[in-house]
Structures
1.
Amino acid sequence: MEIRKELEGKKPYELPRQEKRNYYSQIMQALTQKHYNHCKQYQNMLKIINFNLEEAHEPEEYPFLPVRLFKELELRSVPKTEIVKTMTSSGTTGQQVSKIYLDKQTSMNQSAALIRISADMLGSKRFPMLIIDTKSVIKDRKMFSARGAGILGFSMLGRDTTYALNEKMQLDFETVEAFLEKHQGKSILLFGFTYMIWEHFYKVLKSSSRKLDLSKGILLHGGGFKKLAAEAVDNETYKQCLKEVCGIERVCNYYGMVEQTGSIFMECECGRLHASNYSDIIIRNPKDFSVCAQGETGLIQLLSVLPDSYPGHSILSEDLGQIIGEDDCPCGRKGKTFRILGRIQKAEVRGCSDTYEKS
Amino acid sequence: MKNLDIDWLAGNTEIIVHPLQPYSDLVVYFLDELSGILRKQAIQEKLPDVQSLAFWCRKSHILKLKEKANNHNSLGRGLVFHITPSNVPVNFAFSFFFGLLSGNANIVRVPSKDFHQVNLICHAVKMLFEKPEYMTLKESNALIRYGHNQEITDSLSKKADMRVIWGGDGTIAQIRKSPLKAKAGEIVFADRFSLGILDSDAVLRTSEAECTQLARYFYNDTYLMDQNACSTPHLLLWLGKEKEAAQEKFWKAVFLEAQKYNLEPIKVVDKYTDLCIAAMKNSSGIKKITQWENLLYTIDMDMLPEDICTLRGRFGMFYQYALKNLQELAPFIQERVQTLLYYGLDAQELMNFVLNNHLQGIDRIVPFGNSLDMDVFWDGYDIVGQLSRNICFK
């Protein structure tokens, strides 16, 4: 089954610029219309800004919701009874979490898009899969969070799923060695969160006398480099360091958020993050939200064709990025390619309240 | 005090309580000398907030206040414990000055954030305290810094004769967990809401230069503190005939004036989120949203909500409403409303509006441009009066 009938028979990175623009112009109208009809708050906003729903617009002209809105409001476009899953963002202690409401269709579309994207980027076989995390993160319902949901979501990409860390977040050499022994000579898929891998896998391997041979491994990781910035670790350093400790050749970063699960942006062999058929990316100037030219830095807006059950088809993130190119990546895939330049900085806000704000 | 978690920035660790009369010569000289030091440094380092602080505590200004106060038969209450806001660098100094001017010994908890201005002021105070003539002030005052530590707050509160709490509702609730002596009193500065009122016809009559000046005043009232001070207006009310034309003229001037504002991306995202929440939650009430790029958002209301204090913006987002007449506003003024800024209207008329309507809110009626000006009269308190003890004699 294809996620959207217009994408029938297309590979996930096949749409050239004009075709994609035409499609996004229509699909964004359909989704905006749909959420307008079924989500009261969304309708309120569109009425106030006088948005014309009757005609199709350029993809850049559709309204976008700031990602933090999903923390502040409950936004749904289907009756409560049709919600099969509520995704929540991680968020540090004390912060509000995003609540994303999924119906059956949206949830299935998310899985389907993820499978297609990773099949194209990483290979269509279901590889034996090693998760660089602890099993307790999905066993313990209290800990079940974006981290657990992410692991469960991605684990369907592989088979013989094995967890590399024990419940104390220590690298379990015996288990990993047995896993590698069992699948000797075959490609294996590794998955984890960028920071966890660095902290609990890379650092341990680097200081240990025991070695693991992962030259046949493909590592998929996401979650951002925010915590690694303090150690001056960027994507390139990350790849290099991992290769040094376990011989791994293909390390693939992805960019995505719980507000748009499924239509994630994966890094190709040439080191660029790609928009697929299911998503697009627009960089906006913080000054006036005008669209930035290629190479200019601005706020990242994400479009996704998947959200049916909540108005998350066009979102303004809190990340800064740059477009590298469109339809011109040496890897041959079509679509926009981009780089992430990190999270927007917390401001030093003036004012006379908050003596007791957390320092 | 032996607590090791306290950082003593100036003054003594053992406080000697030795009440003085309000506006005593010793304090006036001390503040004037401090004013001289701070002014020089403020100019050198381009620190407008320190400069206005220095301007405030110069002798001629303090003597004017003294003249108005007329409290000869008073003495300071004893020891005042001040808890000052964490995100306004110079506010602690005002609180300290109020404590000195009313004749008290003071323990001032300065912001925990490492502001340059705070260090600079504390250092200047510390140097002056070393002069023999200010020995008694040194012995009776301390500027301190400590983190969130209830034990310390408990022990300082127990000693205090008056406690002054800045920082809003949350801080007040937190600090009130620490009991005071039975006889001790408290001055608290809770969360407040401020608004502005303009006469459209007066705005339309302004020359270009006058309108720019008005916009500059408004900028200083709002953007200068990220629209986050308690006296910063969030809601503008319009009187007069040609309201729409006046609004257009006013906001255009504000937009030009605000070009110098440092609009960081995080502020844009916060502000845009606020705008979307307002639009999504409000099915009626909001008539129109105007975005002047991301620098200035205005939200036109076609009716006021029961609680006007919910009409709050940040980083340059303002609500506005066209009043039929001043009287229409009366039912909406609740105790939370602090400052009413005005342009083109008669202050006495606004004062009569508050008095004749028996309102619980509006503590301050000042022209645009004065929103952040500190005064010994604040939030309805005569601060120096309340921090001193009046001795009745017949």
2.
Amino acid sequence: MFKSNKTAWLFVSPALAFLLIFKIWPIGVSFFESFMQTSFSGKRSFVGMENYSYLFLHDPTFWNSVKVTFVFSLLVNPITLFVSLTMALLLNEKHFFTKFFRTVFFLPTAISFSVVAVIFAVVLDPYNGLANSFLKLAGMNSQPFFGSANQSLWCVILLCVWRSAGYWMMYFLAGLQGIPQTIYEAAEMDGANGLHKLFRLTLPLLTRTTSFVLVSNTAFNFLMFAPVYIITQGGPRGSTNLLMYESYTSAFVIADMGRASTITSILLIVIMTFSFLELRLTKAKFEY
Amino acid sequence: MKKSKGVKNGTLFVVLSAISAFFIIPLAWILSSSLRPAGSLYQYANPLTWRTFFPSAITLENYRKIFVDLLFGRALANSLIVSFATVILSVLVSSMAGFALAKFKFRGKNIVFAIVLITFMVPFESIVIPLYVLVRSMRLDNSFAALIVPGVGNGLAIFLFKQFFEEVPNELLEAARMDAASWLRIYAQILLPVCMPAIATVVVMTFMFQWNSLFWPLVATHSSAFEVVQVAIATNRVTEDTSWANLFSSAIAGSAPPVILFFFLQKYFIKGISGTGITG
Amino acid sequence: MKRCALVFLFAMMAAGIVTAQTLEVLWMGWPKDQVMQLVNDFQAQNPGIKIDIQLIPFGQLFQTIEVRLAAGGGTPDVYIVDGPNTASYAARNYLLPLDEYFTAAEKNAFFKSSIRAGTYEGKFVSVPYGTSSAGLFFNKEIFEKYGVPLPSEKLEDRLTWEQVAELAKKLTIDTDKDGKPDIWGLGIEQIDRPYLLLPLMQSLGAEAISPSGFETKGYITSDKFVKATTFYGKLFNEWKVSPTGLNDSAIAREYFGTGKFAMMLGNEWNIARLAKFTNLKYGLAPFPYFAGGVPVTPTGSWHVGVNPKSANKKAAVQFVKFITGKEEVIKWYKLNGIAPARPDVYAALPGDFSNPMWQLFISEMNSTAVTRPDTPGYSQYELILREAFASISYGADPKKTLEDASARIDRELKKYK
């Protein structure tokens, strides 16, 4: 670490200026909105913590959303991490087919979540979708997918993994480039086998990348709502009612900015807590 | 030795092909549907036939319609302008900030880092109204600037650069300092070249972020001259109907530029090009 | 000489001939090439006014309107309004009262129910652009193939819901014997939307909301409302004649158009939209009602409003009158197929509207149509009630679900009184 206030601040200022003006300021305004309520005639009044207490004490939909969001998060994050890391590891070596497969895995990312949602709604149609046609071909029963309270959240998870695995794979690929070949060569000379190399060398050396992917993916997934907005509208029977979807409908369908801001403020605290834990957990330990 | 390597590569190829089937199948269906004359949506999805993925009569009518009648080309051009401009500015300021956070101890560092993290933990939807009011008060609305400038500050990019720069050994930088190099030179001539994977990643990250933005362009601009690609794609769904053929063709056409970009940036993700201490 | 020229120039500018205005219009994301025809017409007839029109995809339309209007300022000048949102916008002073700009004759050019939908607290605030109606479309080939007599397409032979359920049971067929229906007896185009479902409850005599517009307890929780909703739930869960999980009206239409629904409860726009299914032979029966009840049909669609903060009010009103005027509505109907909100358009196109299906819809609009509940809290009401209907279609208990929904709606509405 180098010590220099002046240089550091010089380097940090441009980005910081952009962040303060175009992100922090609106975030602050939005945060204060959570202490306000707007009447039908547009009159805004200060209500203190009332929005928060209402959510926590009187709003069963809120608690259902909390449950759904946590279940979603605890499933989608590890699955995405595992899939994208595996793909990166498989594609780290240079072969004639490497570029091709990496691009193929990246393809879904090139399509926005909204369009992916429309595609999945059609592909996973309970009666005539492509997915069910494949299942029937394999002799299995057709599934309700988004039409079932049991399957719907899993389908949302599937959609998110499908769309983002290639994206996070890119970060892992970049991180893997920073591991010097010499380390592997030295380990091989000591008789290390594949799994040993993976768990004792590669993964620890990937810690910084892993922590980045973990923190950003967690944040993204807590803020996820597009598939719910487009396909399920929180259903069936609240099984996909993610918190961010609640916030979105509060803001833009019901024009209840106070409730929307309250939910996103709570989400921010949750995400910050998770990130703090994740950063602690993956503190880079390996120097080489 | 050679034979087992061949077998190993072969297995890898098979495994990768199996995984890619999962990603490709829905896209292949969309692609083939876009090349068919606009017909019924489920016609070839149920039941499954070879025609599902290989249309018997290929037509480019759906592409012609979006480019000629619906001015999709303009949307692509606008998105390219906005995305590339944001990439250039964002990579510059974010790498500088990441450098400071990775390699310097300075007063207020923790607050700055906290700010950086917070900015991507808040959804865009919750800041859109105050941001719009702000941009309007700066008289930036309805311009390319409205689309570019708010996207330059990117906490995720800064965080990524910080993580990558931390991997660069301090010895490298100290050596340069002993040669009386200014920090700016060290940043430009030593740090950046060594972190090409990070830069390539942030290029893709920023490009994708702008390429996929839908709501902000709708709010911040209103002239059709500024229509971006996601708006053009989304307009195929109206209350009364969805133009499936146009939706599919515009989704495919709209995904081409990011894929092409990613494909060509691949060389920065290949071992042996960069990274510290890497031998050929 | 020079001074004369200058004075003349100033006089011209004062007369408004030299200045050109730009009107910002926020519009629904209908196809560019169709909308621009109307815009170009206006600009050709009004050379001093340029139209800067923004077409917003339906999925983001209301959100963008909310952001723009909440931010204040005079943008947009003119914007498209979903009929039932009129009250909510007007209550927040987002709509310019138009009584002083419209003569009584001009207002009478629209359907009375449409004018009512565009009025808030006695002030005329949003101009009707389209309206709607709905009916029971049926697939003639399916009926004939399975030996079921075709429903009558005449108004006086309106089917009861009980009869429709019986037909649906006969026509839910598993053609490939895999245990799952391949043809469903009844599809509902907008499967859980109050727009299409409230007429069922209203047909039994239930009311959608209190006269004040702020209370649903006792209204959506009444026995009649619950009874009609229970019937709706049985379609999916007991008789299994309707498929769950089809949330998109475009998808529902695909099902009907490709012979997977024997009947579909759907909107008037299907007359235009089903044309692409060239093999489809279909008929239209009147919107069903409950035996012993009254026939009720849904209605209402898009309106157009002016921003009270607009700096170009006169030009804005000019545009609004133009686009909702007879000529342009005729043109728009021919391009897009949505039901016009002006009787004179129907009279002007006898070729199109003498079609018996249109005649049916027009009669309904004139006799049985009931507009959606008039309340500034319509979007809260609609969102929560829609979730309730969706849950009921998935098997939730109607009475309990409606009671929970009512409690939620009333809480939301009370917060803002």
3.
Amino acid sequence: MATRRPAAEPQPGSTTLPAVGTLLDRKLVFVTGKGGVGKTSVAAALAQLAASQGRRTLACEVDAKGDLAAAIGAPRSGFEATAAGRDLWLMAMDTEASLREYLKLNLHVPVVTRLGPLARTFDFVADAAPGVKEILSVGKLAWEVRQRHYDLVVADAPASGHVIAHLAAPEVIKELVHVGPIRGQTEWMLDILSDPVRTGVVIVTTPEELPVTETIELAADVANRTPAHLAAVVANRVLPELFNRREEELFDQLGDPGVTAALAAVTGEGTDAVLGAARLIVGLRRRAASQLAELREALPGTPVLYLPEQFGRLDGPALTATLAGFLADELG
Amino acid sequence: MAADGAGAAVPRGPDTTLAALLDGHRLVVTCGAGGVGKTTVAAAVGAAAARRTPRRVLVLTVDPARRLASALGMERLGNVEVRVPPARFSALGDDAEGELWVAMLDTKQSWDDLVARHAPDARTRDAILANPLYRNITARFATSHDYIAAERLHEIDVDGRFDLVVVDTPPSRNAVDFLDAPARMAEFFSSRLLRWLIAPYRSRLVTAASRPFLAVADRLLGAQFLADIAEFFILFRTMYDGFVERSVAVERTLRDPGTTFLVVTTLEPAPAREAEQFCGELRRRGLALGGLVLNRTLPEALATGAAAASARALREGSSALGATLAGDLGASARDVARVLDEVADGYDNLAATAAEQEGRATSLARTGAPTVVRVPLVDRDLAELGGLLALGDLLGA
């Protein structure tokens, strides 16, 4: 793949919050973003990078579709974390299992063997009572942080539409539930979630209009409706710059019918398609650059990390390893 | 600037165009993974139908991007349908045969309307609307958005004011959720849990005593919280019959021969996989898969042997070509050669992606959709009405 710089240089002054280099020094990182932008690949790459630096890292798949395991190249995991490499563990969120663990650890409730009926109605309880499913999920992650089981927990969190309800769950529960042990649990969860040194949200986007718009809106929602803080935005799939300005002028001239014909006389009938491909990249990249400019303008002070487009040449663990390498460079 | 190959959208189905699909149905439900351009396709399809046929067409969208919204004149739009002024079509030199109407799905307002319709009396209605849990539940209940979309679809269908309705489904974790929403809503209202919750508190204690797992709920959440929920559901329960009946009717609408599903996807791995699964789900449920839109595909010319050969020739001959063209272009031979090398690199990158995509396109063609339309990737937005109409042309709608 081309090794030119991605569409926009990271701004030197973009490290006013906790420095971007410290992203992986946090204890809990939620990776979210609009569907289809590569959220899971980026979560896998962050987890793998952290593990490769010797951090004991837990990667958690909150939506439990198995995509995170595939990206890491490990067998699917259940609620119990399984080893997925050196210093890397993998788990899949299961709110019912989380409830069972919670009951066992905190209430010493002797119902563990009798969960059958509860399991059947659990989905209804969780659907009906706002925030219950979410707090069982976010609570489990915060619990791992509180117990210091790992140096870092990376959550492949729900997509934009759902992540706010997730992060806001402890506050919702605190408002709705006035007494009882669950309310008590929300205090330490809020401590962890609201601490920018320990917890950060990473929004993944691509340099396209809709994902960028949604990222800007999501950043505002994270700030206004959740206790958590935005740590960084990852701009994924940024097209390489094909030409500098001088080269681009030359390239434009290649489109003159006379010049194209002279080229085609040597390079054959596919010449138009080849020039068209380059033209498409130049146009797409130009549009991407303006989207990224809009993103930086809307989120001043938020570090933006750039990952280059891989043109579908890689997927699974190979893609994850490549992205981890780029993230290592970006994080310095 | 249009991409090369723009205008090259080719309907692939056995003789069926998207236009024919639109003409043969009253309801078109667009589905697909997030980020594939579903909303834009829904709007383009509706705009095309309104321009081409003398029908009253409604596009019902969910949370559209702001620019698309303003292109459609939807700055302040909610549940109430508004007509896109005919002048917008005329301004494009394109008088519409029919009418284009648009509405945005406002989940909260729709719930309020539903409650108002099903509540037995004004007092119950007001009590529900004022209940502090009501807002929270309608906003967060996972099934809520999907159900409301299906419910509105049914309502508009019954209402009969529109000849064609194009619905853009909400972004769900799983597109199938939309299909299941009516049944799940009915199931929810008849669930044992709900019956337990709304039983008088005293008898619930008795039940709880006999069922330790329910005692746990009391202990976990506190009796007050459960009482709050119970009160809410007691009120909601009064609407039970209306809701269940309605859910059944909504499901019937989805199965109606006048309803068809249009699955939108890109040829990226994840959306393509989801689209394939969704097509399978439709078939399993006996629902009509009318068409498949492959959005933002790379020009097919990229994947041809001729293009690959030209790229190779370009790279191999770049020095010689640079020397030949340098004079005409007023640049050094080395600069020209470098540009030619970059062009070949750029081609290789896109061609690699195109090859991947063709594999997925082939696999998607096996879903048996009667209409398969490719829409080429272009390096500009299609968010103006003119852009939507251009997209409609590409779609063959």
4.
Amino acid sequence: MKIGDMSGGDLIERLQAGAQAHRRPQKTRKCPDEDTLRLLLPGQLEPEEADKLLTHAAECDWCGTVLREAAQDLTDPPTGEEEELAGKARLADPRRRRELVERIVTRRERTVDRWRLPILRWWPAWGLAAAVLVGGVSYQQWMRSPTRTEGLLAQAYTKRRPMEMRVPKAEWGQMRVQMGAGLSSSHEPPELLDAKANIARGIDAGPDDPRWLKFEGEADLLEGREGVAIDELERARSLRPGDVNILVDLGAAYYQRAVKEDQPESYELAYERLSEGVRLKPSEPTLLFNQALAAEHIETPGVAQAAWEAYLKVDSSGGFAREARLHLENVKKNSSNSRTTPPIQPLTH
Amino acid sequence: MSNLEPSGEYEGGLALEESPEELLQKCADMDDTEAWDRFLARFNPLIIATVVRTIRRYGFDRAGLRDDLVQDVYLKFSANRAKVLREFKPLYPGAVFGYLRVIAANVVHDHFKSKMGKYSDQSPLPDNVAAPDETEWRLLLRDIDDLLKKPPVSARDRQIFWLYYRQGMSAKEIAAISSLNLTIKGVESVIVRLNQLIRNAFENGERQ
């Protein structure tokens, strides 16, 4: 049936032409959340809400377009070309799928296990009692706050620096190479233990709070568990894509995996994440330092040299700057060679 | 019934011992590795294809970004103890396919929204007819809407009319809105009926 043939002739044509010409897609305060609007398509909203949203979308050029485009994208089955691309994707590899499944399920188990620990199950009660004893809740709140937790992790890094890459807010520290996958708790700096207690509470209260997921990932990274850290930090990134501190840690985690497991593609992922961060915040020293480190492994010596020079423009003194100069010298020495430069030994005192 | 259900090949060639809805329920428990294996085997091509299509709306088509966003989709599925999976309502057979596609598309839109600070380009409708003056058009819009607000026109039919004529959605796209519960023919029938009603009203001088 062709509707145009049965339309009200000129009247309907004028109506349609006006709709095209005077279209003003502008989001207003009355517009619903776009993710919710798209849920109209599979019918996942309550009838009353669906009715309200449809009435709005029918009259709102912004929401009408969101709905129209979603229907266009999601109505037709995948094309042959899209199927072909699906076959080439990373997760088309059953081994990669298995890794992802393990991360998903393991993460759940870790969260549950943590809650089952008696010390943590009773922690809220202990915390409340302590707060009463010291005469106020605010001190306890500060002790457990994200700001303090971030500081604790930075101090733990500086005290027992486990890798060449930097983490946000941390001062320079002497690097100590870890043996094995992680530190035993007896060798962990007390700051890291304190941070982990805060993180456990934060994650239990909000399993999808990107701040706590970021700290959880950073703590795992400091303990040498970069595989788990990548999972947590990728989750944090998906929840807060523009957070450069998450990208710093994520780049460091991929870099560590590349170093430990000899995975060249992880260097690329590290460089990609760090470059994403640099685009968002071009003068952030931590990002520039880490990006330059990753660049040594995947870019030409010229690019790596430029990256170190860019870092030294924003940080020219202190321990990290000394390391940067050593890297720069090393890169320059190798600049005639097209192969990637081998990583140098970090500065130790 | 929704048009969002894909063709049979997305069953992943598996023996269908369990419905997609049952599989979703098992995954929502977050402790069944085998169920998640089956979930990925069954839905992964559909998820990837949806991500590819949505990325292209923003003018991107890079393998690395594609893979990252597909991973983000799975993290979204499993986030908050698989809240997204737990919230799914199996209102009709095959609803799960459309639901997963919408969630996947939302992850991509959210990614670009956070990068660009706005929704995609809001593509314009085709412009091939001489447009009336805006004041004249708005008067016409108001007159027609007054008619559509009166019986016997239902609120649903009014929505369909404006989705078609104002938002430029096709009958097929409108029929994809499951809450309307109409086939393409059903949508077309509503449009034709309302056209006739409006034409009669204007011819009889009720409106001009």
